[in-house]
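so i finally got all the pieces together for this one. its three components total, 860 residues if u count the protein bits. some of the lines might not be protein, just check the labels. i wanna see the whole assembly predicted at once instead of chain by chain like last time, that was a mess tbh
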Amino acid sequence: MVKNIRSLIILIVAIAILPLIFKSDSFHNVLVLLLIFATLGEAWNIITGFAGQTSFGHAAFFGIGAYASSVLFYRFNISPWIGMFVGAIFAAGVAAIISYPCFRLKDSYFAIATLAVAEIIKQLFVSWDFVEGATGISLPIVDDSLWHMQFNSSKLPYLYLALGLFAIVIFICNFIENSKIGFYLKAIRESHEVAESIGINTTNYKTYAMVISAALSAFAGTLYAQYILYIDPFMLFTLDMSIKIVLLTVLGGIGNIYGPIIGAAILIPLSETTRIVLGGTGSGIDLMIFGVLVILVACFQPKGIIGLVQKIVNNIKKQKVGEGKVETNS
Amino acid sequence: MKPILNIDNITMKFGSLVANENVSFTIHDNEIVSLIGPNGAGKTTLFNCITGFYKPFSGKVTYMDKDITGWTSYDVCKLGITRTFQIVKTLKEMTVEENIMTGAFLHTKKRIESQKIAEEVMELTDLTRKKNIKGGSLTIVDKKRVEIARALATRPKILMLDECMAGLNQTEIKDVMNLCLKLKDSGLSLLIVEHIMEAIMPISDNIVVLNAGKKIAEGPPEEIVDNDEVIKAYLGDKYHAKSKKH
Amino acid sequence: MVLQIISNGILMGFIYALVAVGLTLTWGVMDITNFAHGEMLMVGMYTAFWMFELFSIDPLLSIPISTLVVFLLGVLLYKLVIKRVLGGSGLTALLATFGLSMFLKNLAQFLFSPNYRYINGAIVTDKKIVLGNVILGLPQVVAAVGSIIMTLIIIYFINKTKTGKAIQATALNRDTALLMGIDTDKIFAITFGVSGACVGAAGALMSSFFPIYPQSGGLYSIIAFVIVAMGGLGNIKGALYAGLIIGLTEALGGFFLGTQFKYALVFLIYLIVIQVRPKGLFGW
């Protein structure tokens, strides 16, 4: 665990130094998005990677976080910092409410239920005038200020906010993984019956996981809204958004705390570059290539990039052991 | 000896199929009770009724004067009754140590304490050397060991083992028998479902025989081996008649 | 008026059912959540469109063509992609089908542009059937009837033919089926093909009254997911009934609550039904 914390700190420091070396705006932009999506992936990983309950509805919690802070700022001029926590509480509340009925369901039935919940929430936001319905909310532009979480002259403040959030979330995930709740969630993932037989109240623990996961996703939502400065239901609550979160975590390595950041580090720059280099024409060729890459990973590296890394590390270890044996024999 | 688990007139039905019919017996403190009977006699169903995986149709399960009929399985476990599964269910992606730690977390929040409990249990079940192997890559014998160890780590008062010796060789069966006796010495009560008579008879204090859902006999091992009903249930009427002629 | 709404709902329900039958096959038999199902439907629609544009073949007559085209597409996708992800976790398969969905959608956009296209002047276009107070659009009626026929063919195929029975056996237990001498690889390829055939036919049937564009399959695939789960994974009868329930819910909900809420109601109905039957209407 101590070793884990050390490597996590190294990772975060490394990411913190990167933008000081590479100073281009587009690089900073990619890094901000990457960190926000990695945070979302970490959050999703708790409920699906650890607890094994596939959620196709995490866009809902992300969207609730984005809307809560935006509406409070837009309507009442309340700081997004407060909105951030309001959003997290709302998302956690929604998660707690849907948990009981949804966790009676298993596997695909659960996954489709989360998708249904997200779609219902989307419809509500589309037809809710107070939050400007389908038109969406353009956040009023104000002078750069930390209190208003708006920085229009540089992307660096956003970048470090995103990094801070990511750091908090990955430490939370690391803590969960190595504590009682993490063990219990993994036991639930591996076998529901075993979990119950050794005294685990499965519904309660799944609900804890869902609530934590939802609150963390909402934090990412607020930051995203403050960064983009415009939100509408169709960009936040869609199935595509939920699947993007699933995609990057599975790509990096599901159930591993490094999975989401690795996945995001590949997926986000890739989609941004293909969009910039090949896109803009609306020809769709960028996303075509992207689709093919996703298929290739699924077919040839099903355990994600982290699986590939582990395989290589194991091979090197084996080779070393092998060499050792040869020496003792001679 | 004082009674700790009382099974009182348990009946379990699946539709029109009666799996258990008015089964009653008692487990006392510090005692090994074995549940035997031919395939389909309703042994595992009874296990499930006691541990809350099924809610019995009628009857009562009492643990130390507490009515626990229809409790959830996790509450039954928290109270001190832990079971293993006939078809081993190892937590595949977790190591042996992690498997056992998961059980050990029942009475502690601290990782270090659960690790300590796991170490003790691994020592007892001879798994220490294998602690870093993933559950999915173990041999069947070791999977059965992990199954028992994980249950033990919850520090039960009553341990319920469902056919934990099936498929093991003679030496391995001896190991499990010794383990059972060792656990009894340490103050546990055991309820064992088993087919292997040679293993069961020497270690049991009391044997309950089920046939077609009903209890047909109960008593110490030496009585059970001579019981007519039991021989009939196991060998059928024809053979029974032959054995009588001698 | 209500009768009119109910009739429209039922007609739409049969079409949804056909799309869902295709999805439930791959989901139930192969345990693959096919996110590219909607895109296969879109290929069916485009096939009908180009047959009409280039060769003036009416969508009704091009049903066999688009059925065959998407059947072959299904087999091809199985051979190239799905086969490789079958053994892995469900999420790997999801990753692959999602990649396929992206690829197909954007291939269509690249080849045919994102513009909406319509088939004007098909045999059924703008014709109506009047039954007392109820006016039914001929395209919808034909599509519903076509869907019923296609669904019946699939039911016959699964229950009566040797291949169909092999598919059922494989769905129950892949390993046992293999031991019994069933070529499961071939069975999976056929299952994926038949799943494609369903949406191929559905695509042609729908092409005469729905806009055709690269994203046109997306909505139907989400609805089909809900229908399949509601009916019980792998259950064709379940998909049929759930399809009708969803069709009716959508029509009635749109009428009484306003069109903006009709899909919310569809998803709500799923959540309610699944509470009563956690493994779907016909699940076990």
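The two ends of chain A are 38 Å apart (CA to CA).
Chain A touches chain B at residues 1, 178-180, 183-184, 186-187, 189-191, 193-202, 255 (CB under 8 Å).
anyway lmk what u think
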